[in-house]
Amino acid sequence: MLDFGINNFSHKTFELLKKGIEAQNFRYSTIANNIANSETPGFKRSSVTFEAQLKRALASENSDEKLDARITNEKHIPFEIPIPWDSVTPKRVLDYASSIRNDGNNVDIDRENTDLSKTTLVYSAMLDLLKQDYNLVNLVLR
Fold this sequence. Notes:
Elements: H1 7-36, E1 46-49, H2 51-61, E2 91-94, H3 109-141
Antiparallel strand pairs: 1-2
Helix pairs in contact: 1-3
């Protein structure tokens, strides 16, 4: 198999974009659930966390500012434990703390619509990047 040096880059880029698109799909369903229950008494909205987790994982993988610590015994605790980027998954977080209405519901329909628009833009941008990645691979293969 020919290796042009972009194979690993392309694979990692593809996998990161795939994870991002999956996270946006998960976010879509969460926002849709929030909107569907916007009039349900006592309903608490959910949000999705993914980007911050992924950023921490990528930073732990490429950290140049690591404190050099020798571990001389297996019972020693390492100063920094790298987080594999491919293990990061989107997580749904329930917002128990806030309440907008007297019935306990905390769904703000304007906020949900704004989040939906943002999710659509990010999803579209990721699909464009994925298309560019495929075009780059096709260019190299020609």
